[in-house]
Each structure stands twice: as C-alpha cells, then as structure tokens.
Amino acid sequence: MNNLQPPHHGGRLQAAARQFKIPVNDWLDLSTGINPFSWQPPPIPQSVWQCLPDTYDGLEQAAHRFYGAPMMAIPGSQWAIQTLPAVIPSNRVWLPREAYEEHRFWWQYHQHDVRTYAALDAIEPAFRDVVVVVNPNNPTAEFESSATLLQMAHRLQAQDGHMIIDEAFMDCTPEQSVFHGNKTLPENLIVLRSLGKFFGLAGLRLGFLFGADSLQSQLKQKLGPWAVSHPAAYVGELALLDSHWQQQTRRTLQQASTELQGLLARHVPPTQIQATNLFCTLDLRSEMAVSLHRHCARQGILLRHFEHWHRIRVGLTTKTGRQRLEMALQCWNF
Length: 334
Hints:
Blueprint: H1 13-20, E1 28-29, H2 46-50, H3 57-67, E2 72-74, H4 77-87, E3 93-96, H5 101-109, E4 114-117, E5 130-134, H6 146-157, E6 162-166, E7 189-194, E8 207-210, H7 213-223, H8 230-241, H9 243-265, E9 273-275, E10 279-283, H10 286-298, E11 301-302, E12 304-306, E13 311-315, H11 319-330
Parallel strand pairs: 1-11, 3-4, 3-5, 5-6, 6-7
Antiparallel strand pairs: 2-8, 7-8, 9-10, 10-13, 12-13
Helix pairs in contact: 3-8, 4-5, 9-11
C-alpha cells in the first residue's frame, strides 16, 4: 500500500514552465477539461467570509433542482473518491480499464481487490462487488446509457453490491445522466457530481453526492462540520440557480467542441478523435502522442498526455486559443 504512487493530473503549469523554460503566464493550458467560459461569481458579502455556514439547506435545494435528485454537498467530488473506499465493503471492485486514475489509487490504497473491465456487460457481479463507472469517461469520452447503468445497478443490488457513477463531466449533457427521466433509483446507486468542470469553478472545491440515507449518514460523520466553506456554498447556490447561463453555456460549449474537433481533424485522422463538450481526446500511437505533446509544449501549449494509454486530451479554448493551437499544429511534422 505504501508503494502506491499518486496519479498525475492536468494543469501542472509550474512543472511545464520549468521543464520548457517558458514563463507560466505565457502558456495556453488545454490540459484540464475545465470550461474556459466559466460562471462569473458576483462580489461575496463580507458576512459570508466572516461567518460559518449555518446550514447547507439553500445549496442542497438548489442542487436538487439542478440535478433532479436530492444531493449531499461535499468539498469536491474528489473527497468522495477518496472516502468511499473507506466506508463501502467489497468483494471485488471493478474499474474501467481507462478512467480518472484517482478511483484506482484510492481503492488500492484501502486494499480492495481491484479488477478492470473493458465493457460493463462483461462483468458477472458476485457478492458485494462494487462497479465504478466514469460517465462520460475521462479521458476516452465514451458514454454509457442510463438503461445499461441501471441494469447493472439492479444486478449488483441483488448481490448486496454497489454502483458508483462519476458524472463530473455530465453537466453539459444532462439528458444523458442517470438522473434524467428516472424518479426512482436503486438504493445501492451512488452518483458524484462536481461544479469544477461545466461551471468552470474547480478552485471552489464543491461537489455533490447522491446515495442512500444510511451512506450519507456515514459520510457526514467523516465530513465533520463546515467542510464546505461558506463562500463555496454561497457561490455554488447562485451558480446552480442560474438557468439562463447554463442553457447559453451548453450551446457555447457544444459549438466550441465542434470547432475544436474540426481543427484537430485537419491534423489527425478523424477516426482517432473522441469528444465531449468539454474536451477532445486523440487516440494515437505511442511515439506520435509523445511528439505532439512535446511539440505543443515547446510552443507554450500544455496538453494532457496519458502516457500509458497513448492518448492526448485537449481542452476547449477561446477563438484566440484555437488560432494559437492551429498555428502550432501547422508546423508539427510527424
């Protein structure tokens, strides 16, 4: 357990600046998958900074309205990823072969029997199995249908098992969420959501968890009081209630993703591009991925290189950012 190495993530600008000797402020960071057109908070009242949060009722009601299900506020979905392996008993834990690596790290850290799957329908659930799904997947950009997920959740429920769905990138396409059109969900289902990606508020460290009341009680004991800061609760509630911005931003992100896909397709075969409305992923040969990542970095453009999967993830950017990326790719020879 002590030999486990924590995963690397996107957004490591300081390290890139040192390695390629380019000042931090000169970089175009496309490595994170965070919305570049983020929700803009209003000035925060002094009382919010000064006082502890009394309750999270307003925040959680806003989350219920936005997600369509009762939610528990948590200090980022990462907190749940780290904590759930400590409270959920398991026989085996099934993880996607490729996915956000923090899931694997924390289940292994807590010494669970971790297995991987290429396709959900290949899993034959046994007693107390746990299945983790990242939907849409980061980095592959693949979606699982709600029908497929709920079918697996019911199979696990019959074996006293759990299903965990990480929907951190789902807010762009709420119609594809397991919440959409499903008023009653299995008791063994746990869903994680985040304000970091779609809202572009990763620094807020605010997320939500859907799960059975008994599980939420366990988690609240581990959470302790005031784990979500008062400013985070204040800003999060306003963002969740801003339906006009949400609708407009979904259209903006869809257009930006389409334009980024078109740009990338001029330099990489289109069959090697997968996309969500927050990032595009290139499925490349190992040496090609290394070449592209290094070439862009020398131009001050940071992409996310998944070395062991030979993938490059490219986040969305503004028109100016796309023009800069296009210029870099035009002089990439491989």
